Fold each of these.
Amino acid sequence: MEDKRRCKRLPFSIPVHVYGRTERGLPFRYVTVAKSVNMNGALLPLAPRVKQGQTILLVNSFTQEERECRVVYVDAKHRNKKKKVAVEFTKEQGDFWHVFSPTPKLATISQRQNVA
């Protein structure tokens, strides 16, 4: 798989509930642990069969926050086991995982001169 991530994944294990529909259109609810996260999404083991491009809903088990995601990769190697599924958030809405610190805002020269 070619690495197309916009930012590095961090190796945190964060429990999530996943809601969606299988490839056959049947609704599912699945509890799993996101194994690798970044500001734009995660990699998670998933037993229900999903396909690339479909939309699912993640719920952070710690905060109960919900976030709509798009499936961007499904590992096809394991037929009868949990598959590694990469998802990306459909909208940028802040730190869903609560593990990233905000980027510090640097004062411009004119702002520093006004303070002095």
Amino acid sequence: MKYIKSILLFVILITFSNCSTTSNEDPIDVVVPPTIGAVTTAEVIDITLNSAISGGEITSDGGSPITARGIVWDVHPNPTISLNSKTNDGTGSGSFDSTALDLESNTTYYLRAYATNLYGTAYGNQITFTTPLNPDDLPVVITTEVTDITTNAALSGGIVTNIGATAVSSRGVVWSTTPIPTLNSTGITVNGANSGSFTSEISNLLPNTTYYLRAYATNLQGTSYGEEFTFTTNPLLYTTGTGVTAFDGSHYNSVIVNDQEWTTSNLNVSTYNDGTIIPQVQTAAAWAALTTGAWCYYSFQTSNGIVYAKLYNWYAIAGIWNEASKTDPTLRKKIAPTGWHVSTTADWTSLSDFLGGSSIAGGFIKEAGTTHWSTPNTGATNATGMTALPGGNCSTSGTFTGVGTSGNWWCSDEYNTVNAWCSGLVSNTKNLSSAPINKKTGYSVRLVKN
């Protein structure tokens, strides 16, 4: 035990002696080992289709000389010097300029400055930039003239003369009420792909409104546009009427054109206005034998009636419903609702004169487009809002012709004992014609307010 105490005392004395000796000596210098340097990336400027200028500034060499410096770039973030896409702009600290070469147009790049010393490579802050689009890579498209302008539609298109660097994926026209329309504008059509010509139907336009239109073509590199055209839709030639409700409860909308109020769809009643039934005919033989009022559907098919309504012989228009009423006009029925009448030759003539004459009036009356009318539906604008359809006719023998190509409407005027007046339209002219037709023929009917 005495031995152990002696050892402890010896250790304490030695420790105290060392502490006293050290406190009187000079401080020891701490040596910091060298590290990688510090570098910042310069702004990217003068960006062209295939080059850009940047650089960097080395703010510290980390205690070891800088042996290489420059910039490195790639299409992926955080590029490193393991890539071939880099520069070597000398040695040493300080600032330097550098140019990135062999870039691709219309491409986003990530770029960093770098500085290398014996202990590794330091990178500056990353900068993102995008090279501009090469115009030669875009398609070349020509806008075609705007035609067939109506109150709410027009026709245009374009020609893709060069697809550019890659295939054209979509093409069409764009339009707006402000200049230089783009794919983000109010209206756009998509009319196929690749090169060549295309036609665009422009719809849902406002009446009496100026529009700006351009053709476009898109490939992987971007979208190019053709020449801009300006056009103005036709003004409306009508105001909306109050319409009329028939005896069977069916309602017909109407428009007022030159102080005349016309229904905007064909008559489709199965009774006279007192409830007396107008017979439906479903065979050609029965139709050919008639000398009293009747109606049929085109081709005797109900589906045609859904679109074009009923075809009536003139006897139904005159209210000739039985043998006695053939010779006694006082016994005849009324097919039109109270306060309205079947259109007359005077009604059609007045309408034609207001619209500029029979040679052009039909275009203002026909429904626009080719949904129902056959191509070319010449001059159709429907500026009157009457939406005349090509319901065709049923001949005196009970055969059918003209659906899609002609629309015919009875007039209440009798021409002679065999014929009565009618007015008609066809798909390949703007004419509004009138002629006497055999009373046994089946035609459409429009009403006019008294």
Amino acid sequence: MVAPLKLLGRKPLSMRRFIPALAAVALALSAGQAKADLIGYEQPLVRLGVGGYNVLHADKDAIFRGEYQFGTSLFYVHPLVGTEINTAGGTYTYFGIGLDIPVTDHIYIVPTGAFGYWSRGDGKNLGSHDEFRTGAEFDWRFNDGSRVGVSFHHISNDGITQRNPGVEEALLTYSIPLGKMFP
């Protein structure tokens, strides 16, 4: 049996701890070479959407979305900001992250998570002004970089208040690439 490895007089380093530590060191040493892959740049996108709000319940409304996805990414994760307005007068302004996953040259899956400020208007009471949004978009990317897609998201306050009914929204989206003039 091999004796446990001790580093700097500390507790023995078991194989259970040694393998992840070795992997972390290897990743750190190779990060310089992989920097181009870790921090990337694609064209930023303006994403416009229209669809249904509260689609899984009886009191539905129409919804309109405008979103900006930054071009700079870290591990394919892009920051994003946006706002949504529904026909009951509710607005949701948010910031978050999206992961651009290319399945093929033209098909992308974009899971997103965001946090934002909700104003009810005459619509559904979500229980708080602080709301979270999670979901995904499925896009077809054209050769010019524009995209058309469908998205499904859930908005709720994640139980930070006693009232937390949540809403679901389904939208058709069109994304416009802005070129390299924006971050």
Amino acid sequence: MKKMKMFYIIEKAMTQVRSDIVMIFKVYYQESITEVPVRENTKTLFIEGESVRDVRSKIADRGYNVESVQEVKGEHLSYEQQNEDYKVLEKDNL
């Protein structure tokens, strides 16, 4: 019984920590779901999220043709932050 209770406490703490983690994702997309993906027309945006699935659900109502969603971290994130167009869309901005 003690092991079960200890496992529950640890699992609960891990779940709380996971829910506090917010990552930044780069989304490559076309403006319209009917638009054929062409590299020259591909746009990008940065979104905070907990997972790729979370990010896709946040932008599902926009009608984008999403090519890919990629987590951005470390040196890649530092590089992207130097771009003057870098702006992260948060929950409130969607």
